[in-house]
Backbone:
């Protein structure tokens, strides 16, 4: 057995065990199929509504992708500003923390009043949720640079910008990507909130809205099928970012050994 | 004159361009004159490549706000082209002394006159995100060279320093001795006429350390610089240096200054080397009977 198969085995077995227990419980008739559909019913709904779910996934994926991109840019830029200027740290950081206390589900419908039924209010919701983990991890990553490395760069006559470019920026990169990995998973939840709380015009409204309308129409298996698609999408995004990290910051896994004396 | 003693027959103004024979002939077949302060990132007058520390006292506050008196009235001098070793017990202000010489701090009292100095810190501090060649070429990049030309300059020296084939390895893929060599190359390529080496071989095992000491001696024979070598290894100091300054425990004071007027390469077991080593150990206040680090 290869190492890859060996490492995939435990989660696969766990998933099968959980699905089996779920199937047994649902088939025992203790609860109605419109409240808790059995896995086989969800699989069937998934198969039958593949095209519909696919179109909705495309909508949601676009929202999450654009939102995450904007959140990364915003979080990273704010982190750099906060890192470079104590004044900006004092003025921006408390507001950024405060932004996370805003009850997004409440203000989301109001965003529609300002930006209409299109993509923009949804992106605002996702960015508001996603920029924060990127900001916090990047600020910490920038501050965690080895002070001796900065001292060394000073002896080599590096300017402030060169110290940033050669030491602080790459030192913060793995942390920023970790932030992005957190952001993409909460971003999927953000997309659900955005779609349920803001009105949309158009043939497909995304998986979040699909889940809501199916639940209202007692199409519970299809709602679960949409949730499964969302779930798989979040997992794929998370591991895709892990690949990006290995590509962009291959040293991150060796930091402790590489930096040793 | 110290530099004449160390590099016989070399015009001080043309130090970098001459091939030399004699005692410092290396076994690696290095070609001299590859790096010069004239073409280095920060050109400095070769004539002024000396270090003069006069009556320097220094104190700083540690993490807990306690005032640490690091140095008390230290005077020392390294002439152009000379290798000065500073030995002392741990925490006697040796690292502080190098930071003062490199201009990272200003002394509280006394004066320091010195040509531009590059520091090779105790930890190699290679940047883990850069390959070995990019780490070595860091000073060139900072001085505004393009990535390609900086790499080309640094790779020329890789083979000569026994690092060929490791240009694109990242620091975590290199052995401790290799990392120290890359760090030394980075210091050398800064083009500064004075090198401050802070216990460069302190973290290495005994065999690697002996190899690296030989290697340092040969490299300096071909890339002559004024060197201030800080070490706690008295033997290393006597084998490599033109002069050994012994510092007392903190606050550091000069206990003794020993001239090492012996031909190179020197053997550890040479009677004169051992005699000087014993004198230095005595100045450190150590019982020389069976005590050796």
Residues:
């Amino acid at each position: 057995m290869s190492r890859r198969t060996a490492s995939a085995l435990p989660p696969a077995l766990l998933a099968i065990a959980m699905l089996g227990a779920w199937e047994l419980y649902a088939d025992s008739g203790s609860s109605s199929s419109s409240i808790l559909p059995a896995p086989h019913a969800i699989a069937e709904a998934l198969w039958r509504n593949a095209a519909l779910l696919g179109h909705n996934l495309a909508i949601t994926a676009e929202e999450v992708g654009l939102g995450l991109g904007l959140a990364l840019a915003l979080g990273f830029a704010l982190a750099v500003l906060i890192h470079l200027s104590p004044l900006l740290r004092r003025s921006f950081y408390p507001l950024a923390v405060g932004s996370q206390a805003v009850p997004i589900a409440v203000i989301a419908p109001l965003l529609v009043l300002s930006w209409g039924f299109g993509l923009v209010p949804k992106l605002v919701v996702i960015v508001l949720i996603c920029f924060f983990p990127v900001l916090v991890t990047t600020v910490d990553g920038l501050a965690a640079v080895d002070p001796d490395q900065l001292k060394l760069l000073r002896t080599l006559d590096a300017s402030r910008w060169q110290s940033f470019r050669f030491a602080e920026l790459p030192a913060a990169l793995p942390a920023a990507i970790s932030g992005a990995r957190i952001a993409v998973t909460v971003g999927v939840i953000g997309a659900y909130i955005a779609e349920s709380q803001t009105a949309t015009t158009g043939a497909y409204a995304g998986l979040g809205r699909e889940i809501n309308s199916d639940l209202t129409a007692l199409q519970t298996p299809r709602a679960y099928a949409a949730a499964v698609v969302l779930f798989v999408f979040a997992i794929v995004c998370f591991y895709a970012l892990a690949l990006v990290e290995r590509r962009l910051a291959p040293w991150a896994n060796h930091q402790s050994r590489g930096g040793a004396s | 004159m110290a530099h004449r003693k160390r590099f016989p027959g070399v015009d001080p103004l043309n130090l970098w361009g001459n091939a030399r024979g004699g005692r410092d002939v290396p076994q690696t077949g290095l070609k001299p004159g590859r790096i010069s302060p004239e073409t280095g990132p920060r050109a400095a007058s070769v004539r002024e490549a000396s270090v003069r520390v006069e009556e320097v006292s220094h104190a700083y506050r540690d993490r807990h706000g306690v005032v640490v008196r690091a140095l008390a009235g230290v005077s020392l001098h390294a002439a152009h082209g000379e290798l000065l070793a500073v030995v002392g017990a741990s925490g006697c202000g040796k690292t502080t002394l190098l930071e003062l010489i490199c201009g990272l701090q200003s002394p509280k009292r006394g004066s320091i006159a010195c040509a531009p100095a590059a520091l090779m810190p105790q930890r190699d501090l290679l940047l883990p995100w850069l390959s070995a060649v990019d780490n070595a070429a860091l000073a060139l990049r900072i001085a505004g060279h393009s990535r390609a030309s900086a790499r080309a300059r640094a790779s020329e020296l890789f083979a000569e320093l026994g690092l060929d084939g490791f240009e694109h390895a990242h620091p975590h893929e290199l052995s401790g001795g290799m990392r120290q060599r890359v760090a030394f190359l980075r210091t050398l390529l800064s083009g500064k006429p004075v090198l401050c080496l802070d216990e460069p071989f302190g973290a290495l095992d005994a065999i690697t350390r002996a190899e690296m000491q030989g290697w340092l001696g040969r490299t300096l024979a071909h890339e002559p610089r004024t060197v201030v070598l800080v070490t706690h290894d008295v033997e290393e100091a006597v084998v490599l240096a033109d002069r050994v300054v012994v510092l007392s425990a903190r606050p550091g004071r000069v206990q003794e200054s020993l001239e090492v007027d012996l031909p190179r390469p020197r053997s550890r077991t040479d009677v004169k080397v051992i005699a000087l080593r014993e004198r230095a150990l005595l100045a450190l206040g150590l019982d020389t009977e069976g005590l050796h680090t």
About this structure: The interface with chain B takes residues 146, 148-149, 151-159, 162, 166-167, 170-171, 173, 249-251, 254-255, 257-261 of chain A (CB under 8 Å). Chain A is about 80% helix and 0% strand. The two ends of chain A are 38 Å apart (CA to CA). Confidence is low (pLDDT under 50) at residues 256-261 of chain A.
